């Protein structure tokens, strides 16, 4: 079947002329584009690693609370229960796997997100070859573009927040569903294979059902699939299969469904078409990186939508000429448009700035990926000046990718600061210091978190599965080797009392640097009379000039920590933990003042 589809696709896919100087330049640029895509993948992997935190974030705490309060997560009732507007059965299965086998440390979820995006890339690359007949420079250019879009760091929330796994699952299943539909369509042309084509129909239905069980936008697949079967003039049995499967899926999904009260009423949102259109423009235009210029992002988004509408006019010719790859791309873009429209209708009450949310970039970037691939296909279809036009498109594409990589420091900084705030909150939980201001970074209601700590500590979940959670109360020299003060430097910038019941506690902030390994230390510990009484996270941003040291190569040297039982002034010593095996503790500061009522607390 695959060989039949490949042969038919090659008959309709134009091949670049292999003459003159242009093909050599095209080959060079195709490798450059592919390399840019690979670099993007590596950069995003680096971003995930340096911003890592084992602590759950926002929605993740809801799952922890359910289990901590005696709920049974291994039931269909919980797996299918509504969360905001979503029913996240498959993402919750991933979360359960992380809870049961990986102590809810987020590593499994983050690795799964990366793997799912890679599988999506393989699926698109396969489509280019089998459906599109792309080879050589054209295929390399297409794969490079897809890699750049699927792993673009502008979607940093999705890449570093384990609970966002539904976003990438939805995209993968959508592409798989459309591929199954098109394999069925192409398979009907060959009589010897037609009787086995139902397997591809089943694949499409199963993938669409999986998308529905991953994120709410999966419901948009069913009307798109039914419409596609009508345009492709498939058998009545195939049309009926999608109608029945879609009806059953939607009926089950919306059984006992309630619209989230915090979201806008879609009916009222539709009555504001101008704001709705502005939201759509910003939704797609924000991928360009012009986040500080709302109107520019809006114009870029509108331009992209306009280009697609022009290409959409060729849909019937794509079907007539048997060009399944183009049909696949059009269907995916229509799905992205539907997702953006539904999002706008439900989020319009938060303002059009909500369209810039990083987690929406996953859908937006898929839109630009498919639009770019459609344009590459259109350029290859030119009868005259094909090579020159394709080379020009490669230059523009590579330039856009390089600009995107140049702007990658912004999402990288956002991701690192996000991870630091989570790690600082983890220190507050481990030391049992009720710093509400810090805990609000991980969940809006800090009082929701502390009752969950005993369960997490008992089950060794998240940060409580790590070695640092057992350091409190131990002699410093029994855990770490004491290093020479010349191997590090640092400063204690603030030492504030934290309001709350129980013994006095401090919130300490400052910066530290590991001279020995030429990088920020791995963590901060505080010791009182040689006993570890405090822990701190490193990774906050500081201007290098403040440290006044030419040997420092990173701005992420700030720390925030918490000290328990801070009774006597000047009794607390602050140590930077230097990386290496075994780890060593290097003295950087002394806490010279005791907490007092006159100093500002952070309760």
Task: Describe the secondary-structure layout.
Elements: H1 2-12, H2 22-50, H3 59-68, H4 76-79, E1 82-83, E2 86-87, H5 89-102, H6 107-130, H7 136-150, H8 156-160, H9 165-187, H10 191-194, H11 198-212, H12 221-231, H13 236-253, H14 266-270, H15 273-285, H16 294-312, H17 315-320, H18 324-347, H19 361-380, H20 386-406, H21 409-430, H22 436-439, H23 453-459, H24 476-479, E3 481-482, E4 488-497, E5 506-514, E6 523-528, E7 531-540, H25 544-547, E8 558-563, E9 572-578, E10 584-591
Parallel strand pairs: 3-10
Antiparallel strand pairs: 1-2, 4-5, 5-8, 6-7, 6-9, 7-8, 9-10
Helix pairs in contact: 2-7, 2-20, 2-21, 5-6, 6-7, 6-9, 7-19, 9-11, 9-18, 11-13, 12-13, 15-16, 15-18, 16-19, 18-19, 19-20
In a few lines, what is going on in this structure?
The protein is of the alpha+beta class and 603 residues long. It is built from 25 helices and 10 strands. The chain folds into 2 domains: 2-7 and 25-70 and 90-256 and 264-412, no CATH class; 471-591, no CATH class.
């Amino acid at each position: 079947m695959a060989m039949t589809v490949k042969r038919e696709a090659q008959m309709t896919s134009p091949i670049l002329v292999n003459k003159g100087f242009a093909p050599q330049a095209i080959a060079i640029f195709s490798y450059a584009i592919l390399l840019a895509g690979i670099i993007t993948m590596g950069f995003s992997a680096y971003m995930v690693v340096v911003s890592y935190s084992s602590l759950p974030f926002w929605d993740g705490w809801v799952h922890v609370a359910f289990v901590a309060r005696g709920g049974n997560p291994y039931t269909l009732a919980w797996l299918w229960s509504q969360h905001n507007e979503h029913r996240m059965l498959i993402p919750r299965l991933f979360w359960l796997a992380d809870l049961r086998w990986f102590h809810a440390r987020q590593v499994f979820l983050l690795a799964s997100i990366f793997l799912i995006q890679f599988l999506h890339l393989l699926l698109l690359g396969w489509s280019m070859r089998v459906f599109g007949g792309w080879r050589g420079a054209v295929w390399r250019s297409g794969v490079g573009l897809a890699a750049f879009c699927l792993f673009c760091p502008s979607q940093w929330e999705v890449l570093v927040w384990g609970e966002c796994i539904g976003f990438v699952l939805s995209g993968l299943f959508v592409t798989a569903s459309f591929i199954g539909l098109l394999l069925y369509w192409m398979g009907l042309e060959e009589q010897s294979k037609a009787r086995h084509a139902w397997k591809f129909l089943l694949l499409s239905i199963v993938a669409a059902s999986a998308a529905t069980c991953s994120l709410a936008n999966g419901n948009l697949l069913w009307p798109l699939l039914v419409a596609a079967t009508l345009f492709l003039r498939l058998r009545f049995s195939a049309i009926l299969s999608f109608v029945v499967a879609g009806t059953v899926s939607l009926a089950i999904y919306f059984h006992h469904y309630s619209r989230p009260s915090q979201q806008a009423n879609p009916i009222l949102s539709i009555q504001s078409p101008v704001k709705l259109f502005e939201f759509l423009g910003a939704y797609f235009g924000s991928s360009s990186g012009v986040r500080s210029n709302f109107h520019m992002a809006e114009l870029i988004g509108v331009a992209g939508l306009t280009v697609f509408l022009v290409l959409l006019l060729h849909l019937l010719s794509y079907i007539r000429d048997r060009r399944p790859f183009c049909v696949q791309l059009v269907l995916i873009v229509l799905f992205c448009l539907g997702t953006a429209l539904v999002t706008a209708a439900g989020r319009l009450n938060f303002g059009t700035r909500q369209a810039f949310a990083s987690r929406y970039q996953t859908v937006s970037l898929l839109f630009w990926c498919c639009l770019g691939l459609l344009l590459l296909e259109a350029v290859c279809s030119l009868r005259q000046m094909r090579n020159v036009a394709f080379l020009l498109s490669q230059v523009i594409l590579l330039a856009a990718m390089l600009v995107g990589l140049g702007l990658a420091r912004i999402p990288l900084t956002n991701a690192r600061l996000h991870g630091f705030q989570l790690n600082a909150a983890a220190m507050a939980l481990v030391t049992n210091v009720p710093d509400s201001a810090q805990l609000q970074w991980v969940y809006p209601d800090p009082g929701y978190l502390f009752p969950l700590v005993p369960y997490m500590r008992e089950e060794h979940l998240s940060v409580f599965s790590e070695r640092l959670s057992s350091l409190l109360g131990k002699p410093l020299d029994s855990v770490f080797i004491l290093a020479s003060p010349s191997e590090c430097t640092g400063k204690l910038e603030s030492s504030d009392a934290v309001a709350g019941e129980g013994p006095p506690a401090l919130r300490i902030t400052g910066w530290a640097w590991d001279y020995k390994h030429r990088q920020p230390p791995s963590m901060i510990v505080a010791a009182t009379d040689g006993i570890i009484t405090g822990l701190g996270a490193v990774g906050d941003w500081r201007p290098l000039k403040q440290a006044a040291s030419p040997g420092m190569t990173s701005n992420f040297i700030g720390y925030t920590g918490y000290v328990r039982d801070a009774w006597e002034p000047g009794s607390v010593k602050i140590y930077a933990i230097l990386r290496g095996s075994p780890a060593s503790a290097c003295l950087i500061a002394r806490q010279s003042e005791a907490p007092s009522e006159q100093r500002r607390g952070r309760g």
